[in-house]
Design brief:
Elements (H helix, E strand, L loop, with lengths): L17 E5 L5 H13 L3 E4 L10 H10 L3 E6 L1 H4 L2 H17 L3 E6 L7 H4 L4 E2 L11 H12 L17 H10 L3
Parallel strand pairs: 1-2, 1-3, 3-4, 4-5
Length: 179
């Protein structure tokens, strides 16, 4: 997919949800392609590679990246499904979802072979039927983008004045999180 194919009317300009891509480094081309497509749509995407993690304690570094994200995008290929690191990232995410509900776990399944059991219990984006001969299909990027945007909480407008916020509800969101 060419990054210029999508030209939104109201680009997020890098202010969209923070997305961390979990993938096997052997699938780097796939992850990079999806990263570029989502970044072009204004999402804040983090994708590690072997060099970005050099000299770091991996469990601590990966945990911090997941903690600083609103969406964990898991690219589950046949290789990733066998990766202990991908499974550890999923486990970290599942604990955060259970404890705080402040993370969206978004699995994109490219292969169901050896699919990690906890993922089989989640609703996921099924990418097993897509052809990637011409790159990442726009329809798949659209689905991922839409799901990532689902974590955005818009501030409620006043019912009496559409040009101001409902300050009572905004205060509640600040104090208690999503309602």
């Amino acid at each position: 997919m060419n990054d210029r194919e999508f030209n939104p009317k109201f680009p997020l300009r890098g202010k969209g949800p923070r997305v961390y891509i979990s993938y096997s480094f052997k699938d780097q081309a796939l992850a990079t392609s999806i990263n570029h497509a989502l970044t072009a749509r204004g999402l804040q995407v983090t994708q590690d590679d072997a060099e970005s993690l050099v000299s770091q304690h991996l469990p601590t570094a990966l945990s911090a990246r997941i903690e600083n994200s609103e969406v964990l995008l898991c690219l589950l290929t046949e290789i990733a499904n066998r990766s202990n690191w991908c499974r550890q990232e999923i486990d970290l995410a599942l604990r955060r979802v259970k404890d705080t509900r402040s993370l969206k776990l978004l699995p994109v399944v490219f292969s169901t072979e050896n699919l990690y059991a906890p993922i089989s219990e989640w609703s996921y984006i099924d990418a097993t039927r897509h052809s990637f001969s011409a790159g990442i299909p726009l329809a798949l990027v659209d689905k991922i983008h839409k799901e990532c945007l689902g974590v955005v909480e818009l501030l409620p407008l006043s019912k009496n004045n559409p040009f101001s916020f409902d300050y009572e509800r905004v205060s509640g969101l600040i104090e208690h999180g999503r309602d």
